[in-house]
Write a structure and sequence with these properties.
The structure is a single chain. The protein has about 950 residues and is α+β, with helices and mostly antiparallel strands. Helix content is about 30%, strand content about 15%. A ten-stranded mixed β-sheet has the order 3-4-5-12-13-14-15-23-24-26, covered by helices on one side. Strands 7, 8, 16, 17, 18, 19, 20, 21, 22 and 25 form a ten-stranded mixed β-sheet that branches. The protein has a six-stranded antiparallel β-sheet with strand order 2-1-30-10-9-27, with helices on one face. The longest helix has about 35 residues, at about 780-815. The protein is globular and about 75 Å long.
Amino acid sequence: MPPRTRTLRAATVAAVLALGTSLLATAPGAGAAEPKPLAATDHCASQCADILPPGENGNATLVEILGNKAFGTHPAHSDDQLDRYNGLVAGHTGLTDQKLTDFFNDASFGVAADQVESVTKPREDVTITRDKKSGVPHIKGTTRYGTEFGAGFAAGQDRLWLMDLFRHIGRGQLTSFAGGALANQGLEQQFWPQAPYTEADLQAQVERIRTTEGARGEQAMADAQAYVDGINAYREKSKKGRYFPGEYVLTGKIDSITNIGEIQPFGLTDLISIASVVGGQFGGGGGGEVQAALSLLAAQQKYGVEEGTRVWESFRQRNDPEAVLTVHDGTSFPYAGKPDQARGTALPDAGSVTPEPLIYDRTGSASTNKKAPVDAPAALEPLQGMYDDGVIPEGSLPGSGDGAQKRGMSNALLVSGKATASGNPIAVMGPQTGYFAPQLMMLQELQGPGISARGVSFAGVGMYIQMGRGQDYAWSATSAAQDITDTYAVELCEPDGSAPTKDSTHYRVDGACTAMEKLERTNSWKPTVADSTAKGSYRMQVWRTDYGIVTHRATVGGKPVAYTSLRTTYRHEADSIIGFQLLNDPAYVTDAASFQQAASHIDYAFNWFYADSRTTAYYNSGMNPVRAAGVDAALPVKAEKAYEWKGYDPAANTTDYTPFAEHPHSSGQGYYISWNNRQAKDYSTAAFGFGAVHRGDLLDDRVSALVEEGGVTRASLTRAMEEAALTDLRGEQLLPELLKVLRSQPVTDPALNAVVQQLDSWRAGGAQRKETSPGSHTYTHADAVRIMDAWWPKLVEAEFRPGLGDGLWTALTASLATDESPAASHGPSGAHSGSAFQYGWWGFADKDLRQVLGQPVKGPLARTYCGGGDLSACRSALLSTLKEAAAVPAAEVYPGDDSCKAGEQWCTDAIVHRPLGGISQKSIHWQNRPTYQQVVEFPSHR
């Protein structure tokens, strides 16, 4: 293919020449052949659009990285979707259907002849055509093998370094691969214990798919092998041609002068490793039962067992009657509810819980974080230490970093044809997977025997489109996070019959004292140009049992136990490949019902959405275990036969699963929304925070109003999404109640009354965090936003802590953080991540304030906390904290970080595409919006 970089200044070229002219090599020229018309029929008639910032191209040679650092130049197609994505902030207010492609790509199949930028034929049976506007690969194969080989080759072209990173993250070998920076240590320590495998374990998963899933399984592994072959073909060509990603030089893998070194070949087990990272973080659900038990114990200690349990349950909100639902027609799907009489619950003795150690045998910088910069050639000095803070900055990936918790992502808005202007359904939907440069996903089109789709796939597992569109249908997903992970308390023992301790490494299985399996990973590193961290090493160690991986030690009733985490998808990281294969097969997916059947083959916990020209549909996927009667899924349970999952086989980690009909599903509902909210009535949540106020309300209120009005268009539904994306949940949903409390008596302090009026004006204006004009970097209601950001944590603590007491307050906030505003960098999303307002105490505050105001509340908190239930006292607490908040200067509310100076409000909120390689991107306006997004309306069907 032709060079994919913009012109560099002469100074950069001269500097690189000092290292040898080989560094200037770029990708080889493309063939001149024009692409043949695609045979697949496109029923979208130019009414399908998509976007994935910053750009398709995620690889950069060393010269391109140097140019980016020195002069801000970017490789072609590495940033050409960024401005369009950012432009919707200002552009959505005047949006029309005709203007959608100002902010989105045309997602039609194929490439018009006058829009062809390059054509590559890695084999005779496949062609990769890239378009001029975005450089997306349109892969057309005449054979199945060739199609998948082309997908792998294109993945190598666009994401080779990223795929290499993620296979090492999944294996727990990031520090050995990319350097010993503390963030790298933290990332592998976060991910590997969730999916620790031996190489034999990884290979066994490949063989299981091949041998137990019939013809579909055999085809899936053949497709995967072809995909890997394509990656390796590009890996070899780029190495020989010296146009491989420059990060391999900077991390010491390849010598810049001699080209000596190697990019290790990819294999099928690498795909399993990558899948464990992707699926575990975006498609997991449940866990956290030990922390839930600690907060329950704290409640019982304060109030007594009966009342404490009642109080705790009112905060747990497993099945809150006021929660926004995706299936909102009243259909019930009972799952993981609170049993009438719990059996087998294994609560720890007070003060006995200790986390399981992970790190042993630290040497060198593993204990000191010492830096020891290498002597770098002068031309590479601008890149020295670029990974000193980690190849992936701490907290950037969902579920990583200090205090991290798994978080759901993504949203979806679908309206049936009954409410649209055209009479055809409309969908605006996509996954919210963080912001990286390059993105974790890549856009592609696949056309070949049995495959016809365009959309995104996670890099490294892109054999099929995972979210996107087919010939006459589109689909997408949001993280569902229902409970597919349980915690067991295994009774410890000693093989010689002596008394066990909490440190014992044997446990009882059916009465026999059985040895735990030790899994280890030893990593070592040395300084490179990219990462100056001095030489060091350590060993990670986990214990595996028949009931999962040991996470904590404790005593229960005085007996030592180990708490283990058992996930249904463990040892099945890539089994979902069958579902994705079906979704890409136009012969299989022909309507809503066949789509739901395809989605049911996906094992991870996702909400799947579908739209064609006739209907919309929904299905909740996941390997939901059938639990023993009376087992409380929200708390640890004894590891005994009577309380195991039904039909559980520890050798293969298989069990009985709830059938298709018991998963929330629907077809033809007037509208669907999802923003990681609860799925349906009686489908219990796996975590705290799914109550009366949820960010899903921002969508539900707007879409329901559109549907009631009728005449919905792609533009109007996109506007509704974007309005929600710019709205502060607290300002829209909580501020009205807060103002009622404050104004229950006149606010006599003139200065404080002015503050109240500022907040009310912000609320009346839509409670948005939006700049006054494009590029102003100043919010329209900047002071009100600052006050709310300073006030919220203060008011929540003043509202609840006095009544809960320090112990229960601390325990509950450990289960659910109080705030996740865009500026709350301490939250589970981390700073500059876009996604906001998923986790927080908004639902608790909403119910409590309404209880104080004497308003009706369904599913109330067991007690009223603000002011001890007295309106006047509550008002005093809110006023005093508001006065404190108003006096906090912007420099304290927004203390600054590596991207922003102290006091820079807009910048603190702004989205930063975290560099996963050597290319960085500019910050863009905050939006609480999917990273990849589709806007679709099919006018016809096969």
